[in-house]
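To fix ideas, we quote verbatim one protein's residues and fold tokens.
>
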Amino acid sequence: MKTLRPSSEVRSYLTGLQDRIISTVAMVDGGQFLIDPWKKPAGEMLQGDGITQILEDGAVFERAGCGFSHVRGPRLPPSATQHRPELAGAPFEAMGVSLVFHPRNPYVPTVHMNVRMIAATPAGGPAVCWFGGGMDLTPYYGFEEDAVHFHSTCRKALDPFGVDKYPRFKRWCDEYFYLRHRNEQRGVGGVFFDDFSELGYEGSFAMMRSVGDAFLDAYLPIVDRRRDIDYGERERSFQLYRRGRYVEFNLVWDRGTHFGLQSGGRSESILLSMPPLVSWSYNRQSLPSTPEERLYREFLVRRDWV
């Protein structure tokens, strides 16, 4: 790892990415995002600022949240040092863009994307930085062409940095977005990487940018294909039930949520990923040969999509 460079170029990229995504999604939905800039009060352990942008009750998206944050703290939280024990207790800087879009139509999948940089300065040593991110797709009703398109776009974004990157990060995504307590995948996956610095600062930052820049191409064609499909109470009920799995993962297993809460982050922004409506049913079972059962059998499994 190289000594950390000034973070202004990373911040500039991330705020620009947020603006590009939000302006495009606002045109797709026709609604208006609430823009909520924030700054941590003086005296709090965690310092920094950010911009939360959120659309609620839109025509296409029931809730679409996209947040930028840039924070500094006196010591890395446990969620960030479980794989880097030598950095335990080091002061840190973290910045990133994270989004989750929950569609209104059950035939449109939920999507998550995150790109970030974390830097730490261990006692007696130089500052080090690493990058993380990825995107993943969580359908309620499975369509093979959607999964293939999403994964193909991810692979195209990563191939310039080594043909090993997509299969490696695809497998990492499958392993990460997995509800261990239910022995169930969260969705059809995508790509995920963390603690990444092996291409050096320039190369690792460029790879992160490529993933972030690919998001709209990966997701919006799927939205356009599915947004006007007719649905009824059956599909809506299943969508709300499956959203419960999303909540379970984010609160129980997600390292990003744990990092934000453990480091004293802004709860309202950290939890913007939560869906507006959700339901749980005891031991709900889908009937054989139904679209709902097909989701479990063909899509919530680890597959090679491309």
